[in-house]
Amino acid sequence: MVVLLILVIFFLMSAGILYRIVGTERYGKNQLKRLQLGAGQGAAQGTPLRAEPCRTIRVYFIKPSRYDEEGYVQFFRYGVQPNNTLTVLKALNKGLNEHYAAQRNVYLETVIWDELCDGLVSPETVLAIRDKAREDGVELLIGLAGVQSNQYPRGRDLALQFIAQGMTTMMGGFHVSGYPESRSFLNSCGITTIVGEAENLWAQIIEDYLRGELELNYSVSEGIRAKTGQDDIIVPVITEAQLPVVDDRYLTRFFNPAMTTLDTSRGCPFTCSYCSVKNVMGRTMRSREPEAVVQWVRDAARNHGINSLFLVDDDFFRSPRWEEILTGLAAVRTEFPALCFMMQVDVDASSYANVAEGESETAKHRRSRRFVELAAKAGCYQAFVGIESLNPDNLNFATKYQNTDDRHHRMNLEDARRKVLEKYRRVVDNWHKAGVAVHAGYMLGFPFDAADCGRIAARTLKKLGFDIVSFFIMTPLPGTEDQVRYTNEGAIIDWDFNNLDSQHVTLKHDKLDTDSWLRAYSDAFRGFYSVPRLLHTVFTVAGGRGLSPEGRRSTVRQFVYYFFSYRQGRHPMVGGVWQIRRRDVRRGAITDEEARRQYLGGLRFDAILRGDGDRFAAAPA
Predict the structure, then answer these.
(1) pLDDT, tens digit (0-9, with 9 covering 90-100), for 262-316
(2) Is 157 helix (H, G, I), strand (E, B) or coil?
(3) CB-based contact 312:344 (threshold 8 Å)
(4) Which of 182, 266, 498, 540 has a CA between 20 and 30 Å from the CA of residue 224?
(5) 30-60 as b/e, with b when 16 or more CB fall inside 10 Å?
(6) At 471, which helix (H) or strand (E)?
(7) At 229, is the pLDDT very low, low, confident or very high (cuts 50, 70, 90)?
(8) Model confidence over 92-124: pLDDT tens digits?
């Protein structure tokens, strides 16, 4: 009994001492001084602190969707690929906050909204955004981000609704960067347009906004000069640029929440006439710092559970730092064995990985072989390759000489065709030997295509061994040489940008009318994604091709998704999984002027410059 009493007293004394150490004196004896948290000396003596209100700007980065055939906004329960532009812009705000919080007492609150999978922005949503900002006492800045041409009508309609409610609104992306007419219209409505990449512009835009001096148009003016398919442009140096934010909330909106996107380089050195990338980002390849890229991937895997990446570089093989990046990713993969990625490359990335009969090994062969080996070691499970056509005449028309190796047209047609097919076969075989699946991009409707082009494409691409093929109808995208050429020839028959989604016919063709063109498109995807091939791919799990386990799984997932997407009338690259149709929001305007009348009642922003009204002035309908 005495021993028990002694033990009880000992434990009570120990508890008291412990409480004294880690409780009341955890910050030391002078607690008040330690708990000042940066306040002035007078605050510890009861002097009241002077309140300094923080200027908060709530920035919405919204990626608009597009309208479907019936005019409803496309919205899906799950997206298939996160938008890299949204996460990069959020990272830019994060970087600015580190500067403004300390020096300006300004905070940029960021909301990213992908209409395709986060839900459409209805008129009620626009009002709710405005009212919530007023309730919270914050300012609003609306940015329609990464707007492509087929998303421009939806983005324009949203921008006009925000402007009508008095919200500062901006728009950027490939469409406004490549089509001056749309910029002029948006500027006339009071919408700021941003041309090119945002890294060198965003800080200046925010500074101008804070001073109340926001301009109507911004374009890159600092960086390096880069060639395009037209005039030279200035592009930013991205070596030290902010890397994308991994937004865990955003990723839950996608079919695979453990997959995200990353751009390690920008630009494309080639001159393909149908592509707008070279005219917006330039032909000079620029790369991020490899060490920063590798550390970002390691953090994404460790802290966010990311095990799949899509490197959205337009041609990763042409990145000046690909070897350092792949070597670093291979090292990360030793820590996270499930980590894998897919990428976009040109045909030369793998076509010279072997030395064919009659060839002598060159630096081109060694570079290609090194790239394929390193990519496989780093976890690449799929390579997207721009095939575009089997006909060398079509490739030469599009100035896609990298696929023909016949820039000077010295070969006759049959020899050129045979060389192209052999090159494509080597592309597939060399990637398959490394366990990597091959995804081809293929366009229908080049000048030398005929009514049977879709059927021939499906049959040939299957024989060559491509695992996945994305078929596109030839489309004159704004900002491209094709769009300029077809405009001058009067060959564009549909100027509704909403239809520039690669599955609508918008051009005249010497050999194809609209119906035969659409039949060729249907023949292509139905021939390649046939029911027997679907069953074979599913039940063999894409076996017999030498693919890695993740390469086989991804091929099965994509084949099933493409099979159903094409048959439901949606291009797989602009869709998602499980469509949800909101019938309370429907397209009401086709042209810009119709949209102005619908959302602004014909009011024009340029009246401010003339001094004809307090805010807007009426213009003739």
Answers:
(1) 999 999 999 999 999 999 999 999 999 999 999 999 999 999 999 999 999 999 9
(2) helix
(3) yes
(4) 182
(5) eeeeeeeeeeeeeeeeeeeeeeeeeeebbbb
(6) strand 468-473
(7) confident
(8) 999 999 887 777 889 999 999 999 999 999 999
* d(C-alpha 495, C-alpha 514), whole Å: 15
Separation CA 440–CA 493 (nearest Å): 28
| Residue bearing tokens 């074979």 | 536
Q: In what order do the strands lie in the sheet with 139-144?
A: 106-114, 55-63, 139-144, 168-172, 192-195, 217-219
**Is the CA virtual torsion 549, 81, 330, 282 positive or negative?**
positive
Given this model, what pLDDT does residue 483 score? Answer: 96
What pLDDT is attached to residue 102? 72
- The token pair that represents 300 in the structure block: 């994404």
**CA distances (Å), origin 262, targets 21, 117, 118, 285, 537:** 49, 19, 20, 16, 29
CB atoms within 10 A of CB 569: 10
Q: How far apart are CA 326 and CA 304, in angstroms?
A: 21
Both tokens assigned to 95: 């970087």
Specify the amino acid at residue 491.
A
- Are 215 and 201 within 8 A, CB to CB? no
Read off the pLDDT band of 606 (50, 70, 90): very low
- Annotate 33-96 with DSSP letters as a single string: HHTTTT--GGGGGTPPPPP---EEEEEEEEE---B-TTSBBP-EEEBSS--HHHHHHHHHHHHH
Torsion of CA 594, 599, 601, 606, to 10 degrees: -90
Number of Cβ within 10 Å of residue 548's Cβ equals: 18
Taking alpha carbons only, the member of 78, 90, 470, 107 closest to residue 256 is 78
Q: Which amino acid is at 168?
A: T
Quote the CA–CA distance of 503 and 565 in Å, as a whole number: 12
Q: Using an 8 Å Cβ cutoff, are 241 and 265 in contact?
A: no
Encode pLDDT of 352-385 as tens digits.
Answer: 999 999 999 999 999 999 999 999 999 999 999 9
If you compute the radius of gyration of the chain from its CA atoms, what whole number of angstroms results?
A: 28
Distance of alpha carbon 125 from alpha carbon 133, whole angstroms: 12
For the segment 413-442, what is each residue's pLDDT rounded down to a tens digit? 899 999 999 999 999 999 999 999 999 999
Q: Given this model, what pLDDT does residue 423 score?
A: 97
What pLDDT does residue 10 have?
54
Q: Is the pLDDT of residue 31 over 70?
A: no
Helix axes 514-528, 549-567, angle to 10 degrees: 150
Distance CA 478, CA 497 (A): 9
Burial 75-99 (b: 16+ CB within 10 A, else e): bbeebbbbbbbbbbbbbbbeebeee
Residues 6+ apart with CB under 8 A from 196: 177, 219, 220, 233, 234, 235, 236, 280, 281
Distance, CA of 472 to CA of 463 (rounded, Å): 20
